Amino acid sequence: MDNLRFVLFVAFAFLSYLLWQQWQIDYGPKPEPSKEIATGEAPKPDVPSSAGAVNDVAKTSVPAETPALKGQRVKVTTDVLHLEIDTYGGGIHELDLPNYPVDKNQPDHPVRLLNDEPEQLFIAQNGFLAEGEATPNHHSLWQSAQTEYRLQAGQDSVSVPLTWSNDKGIQVTKTYLFKRGSYLIALEQQISNRSDTVWRGRQYAQLQRRQPPQQDKSTFIRTYTGGVVYTKEEKYEKISFDDMRDNAFNRKAEGGWIAMIQHYFLAAWIPPANEIDTLYTKALADDHFVIGFYSPVSEINPGEEKRYSASLFAGPKLQRVLEATAPGLELTVDYGSLTLVAKPIFWLLEQFHKLFNNWGWAIVFVTVVIKALFYRLSAASYRSMANMRKLQPKIQALKERHGDDKQKFNQAMMELYRRDKVNPLGGCLPIVVQIPVFLSLYWVLVESVELRQAPFIFWINDLSSKDPYFILPILMGISMYVQQKLNPSPVDPIQAKVMQFFPVIFTVFFLFFPSGLVLYWVVNNVLSIIQQWYITKSIGAPVKA
């Protein structure tokens, strides 16, 4: 029993160390991005003319890139998005999230999700692939009647039209539609065929991104940055940059979508739900990658027109918003293998947040609920430990009697357990039960943007970052020390000495953990101490070590 408990504690300490390493990666100091040595505008990475399409569009003809063409920026401002559309290509090249500052102390410095700076390239592109006649793609020059659009007070939406035409009679109008309070950008493209031949082609939309610096691979738990796809058949799949580099992804799907995700935020192209599209990836030069979709080939007869549509979600991973946007999009809030435990925890947090409008109090009451759910199991474990504590004098006497003969000592100790009907494994259950809950809550705090920079009370102004004064970690260490005193001491003196250092070791680990997680652990320890003290006293075991 002592050996097993000792192994569990060591394993839990090692696990906590890994989590601490991950928290340093997520929230520790980041290296400064390297600066471009060359001056002037850096060349934009190109995409093959098929935009990732495969053999069935081999005849597609797309105009070659013309570096001499230079577009203008069209600025769009809504209540939740600040972005710039480049008329060269008609894609979104910058997108800021004004409601999500990079640092809580700098509210005027928003997160920039899309960015066309060479070292941080992440842009949204779209266009057409057509046979025979030139058709606008993300290397074409579009026209805009205005250089700035703004969602005015009292307006629910604002549309931004771009136009393109050629001397053959093909006219295209690309319109972005922005709605108040929404991170979903509707894209509608209308092709009018004023030529004397049939137009045949397809729409595509894609995200192009340069691979960011890799996280330290020595850690086993870390947030994911890369591509994801969703289809009805295969559901949610991650496609890392390495996967894109090794093998180009290509799959037909109805009602699917593609995305690039990162910590707290994502950009996703969502085609029409009833359309069978092809989802694809492509690795380009200089660590640039593309993930996108293209539609089936359609025909437009002379004198006719056709409309194509898609949606771009670019914003925070708000789970309820994502659920209402597209099937499976909420899975981008990636809890990994602990999703089955983490999702109910987040739901419960939401319910308490509705009552208190404070995520800190939500964590406190979620901890109370979790403790209540496991009350009987914990009670059985604490009774086992209390009974073990009552046997400590007898076990010590056996140890003195048998001296260094460990085999006889263990046999006598097991006989003592059987005679007194004590389960030596019962005391391990609280540790085993708490590990998945602890990890699940960790992932909820790490992945849920709703808790990002959320205040609690007094000095705790950000539950997703460490306690600035380390008060909660110290309280956690004290509570762990008190709880340790209620447990039976290991018979092995070396193990007993090591166990005495655990409160100090855990306090050091928890110094850099998110304060919301430490808050959970402090409340959980206090509730455990009350329950265990009451049970130990009722059984008649000595309370002091």
List keywords for this structure.
545 residues, alpha+beta, 2 domains, six-stranded antiparallel sheet, 12 helices, elongated
Descriptive account of the structure:
The chain has 545 residues and is of the alpha+beta class. It has two domains: 62-334, Distorted Sandwich (Beta-galactosidase, Chain A, domain 5), CATH 2.70.98; 342-539, no CATH class. The longest helix has 26 residues, at 2-27. Strands 7-8-9-19-15-14-11-12 form an eight-stranded antiparallel β-sheet. It is elongated, with a radius of gyration of 30 Å. Strand 2 and strand 3 form a beta hairpin. The chain has helices at 2-27, 241-246, 319-325, 339-356, 359-373, 375-390, 392-402, 406-420, 429-447, 471-486, 493-510, 515-539; strands at residues 73-77, 82-86, 91-101, 110-114, 122-130, 148-150, 157-165, 170-179, 184-193, 199-210, 226-231, 235-239, 250-254, 257-261, 265-270, 276-283, 288-294, 298-300, 305-316. Helices cover 35% and strands 25% of the residues.
